[in-house]
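> example.struct
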């Protein structure tokens, strides 16, 4: 309860308001790139858009009141067990192939 209360107290104080969030699907990345958002919770799929920002940025552990911890995010890639191109798919993804019956 304490963590949820802490989080919901932030909009408009130290994070974007609900109105800022209504600006469109990329409002958070645009606020970060323009220097108006100090911390941005996102993923590696957004790094390409940060190549030309006029400031240095880094990756850090998420803040916490009593315990510092990070969320884990994973992606899955699948290939049909009956595909004729299993080897090509394996090379393209760079992952070890798991074939299920």
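> example.seq
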């Amino acid at each position: 309860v304490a963590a949820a209360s802490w989080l919901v107290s932030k909009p408009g104080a130290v994070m974007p308001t609900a109105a800022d969030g209504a600006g469109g699907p990329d409002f958070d990345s645009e606020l970060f790139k323009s220097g108006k958002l100090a911390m941005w919770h996102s993923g590696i799929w957004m790094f390409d858009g940060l190549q030309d920002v006029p400031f240095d940025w880094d990756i850090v552990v998420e803040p916490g009141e009593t315990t510092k911890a990070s969320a884990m995010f994973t992606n899955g890639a699948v290939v049909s067990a009956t595909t004729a191109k299993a080897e090509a798919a394996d090379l393209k993804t760079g992952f070890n192939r798991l074939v299920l019956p």
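> remarks
The two ends are 44 Å apart (CA to CA).
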